[in-house]
Amino acid sequence: MKRLSYGITEWPPPLHAPMQLALFGARTVPALKLDGEKVSGSRAIMRRLEQLAPEPPLFPADPAARARVEEAERWGDEVFQPVARELIWVGFTHRPGAMVGYSEHSRLPLPAPAIRAIAPAIARMGARLNRTDDGVARCALEALPGQLDKIDGWIADGTIGDPERPNAADLQITSTVRLLMTLDDVRPLIDSRPCAEVAMRLFPGADGEMPAGSLPAL
Hints:
By secondary structure, this protein is mainly α. The protein has helices spanning 16-24, 42-52, 63-94, 99-102, 112-129, 134-156, 168-180, 187-190, 194-202, and strands spanning 31-34, 37-40.
């Protein structure tokens, strides 16, 4: 969006955690290296990019509108994004073979048979790292409809969802919506909602599909 050139480095999950911690002082991705400067976390990265390339803006100029966008962005980062991690890692523990599809366009040169062989161990480590299990997933699924209502409310009042000018909260929240739409147990809760349309518009391509029955029933 900012028309800046960049390169991407991938770490194999869940080994990304110690590698990121060593390189950036925080275990999560994404992180940015810029001429020796290190920036960790999506919210910090978006603000740094805003300084580098102010157009198109990721935040409204009006202070009140910016405050609403920043609150939605913070919620998307701190509350909503963990839901996707909790659900997808539980899904992988039950269907580790699904990891092959999510790796389709990965830059890591691992053939599908190798991914299938190591997927169960990766799934267990990923679930442990993200402190999730079937019980956590059930709680996340119970809370999800209310969270989706909240997102659709922000679309209705114009905080997010502008097709001409997506903002930082759009990117923070609807990327998670799009990932959740790859979970067959979850997608029916999202498909007919306004947030699904925004997520598909901003993130039309998403690798992977978690088959139905991968998550615990409510």
